[in-house]
Amino acid sequence: MKQFVILIGIACLVTGCVDVKQVAKERYASNSAVEQYNANWHRPNSVEIQTGTYSNKVSSSRYGVLGNITIESSYHFENGQVVYNGQILGKVYLFLPVDATISSKADYQLDDGFISFTNVVGDGAPFPLYKMPYEVIEDTVILYDVNNEGAVDLTLLAKVSE
After folding, report:
1. Which DSSP string do the residues of 69-111 spell out, in sequence order?
2. Is residue 107 over pLDDT 60?
3. In the chain, which ranges are continuous DSSP H helix?
4. Residue pLDDT, tens place only, 20-68
5. Rounded to the nearest 5°, which phi and psi values hold at 48?
């Protein structure tokens, strides 16, 4: 969902209706779909997130002839803090370039299969106001983000070898 909102912000930036940096600053609030999903969440395990850098890359061509957008992200988890850096690249309307950088950091807390973020500095979009279900499978962190329609968007963060 976050990637979709950022993509919409980029499209509006190009057409002049919204500043993508303003969209990136917003932290997402909870809604009934999020609350319902979280109430039914059964944590698969209680694994801590290992210290290190995790990466993610999302590409979208869902807008057909309107363009393609790629978001490359890195999350560095260490001592209860996470630092996020993201790069949004692509073209909209076939020829208008998009190149935006998003960066922020936050404190995080893990509690019974949920991750929550506080003390956000910088762009808030990567860190919602509500707690998110998560799980760790080997060197991959999976964040479960419920969108406004109640569908679950998975963010897969693969640990980068150091």
Report:
1. EEEEEEEEEETTEEEEEEEEEEEETTTEEEEEEEEEEEEEEEE
2. yes
3. 2-15, 20-25, 32-40
4. 445 455 556 667 777 877 788 877 666 889 999 999 998 877 555 567 8
5. -75, 155
State how far the Cα of 8 lies from the Cα of 2, in Å rounded to an integer. 10
**3-state secondary structure (DSSP) of residue 129:** coil
Contact between 99 and 89 (Cβ < 8 Å): yes
**What own/partner pairs with CB < 8 Å and gap ≥ 24 does 42-48 have?**
42/113, 43/112, 43/113, 43/114, 43/133, 43/135, 44/113, 44/135, 45/113, 45/135, 45/136, 46/112, 46/113, 47/135, 47/136, 48/110, 48/136
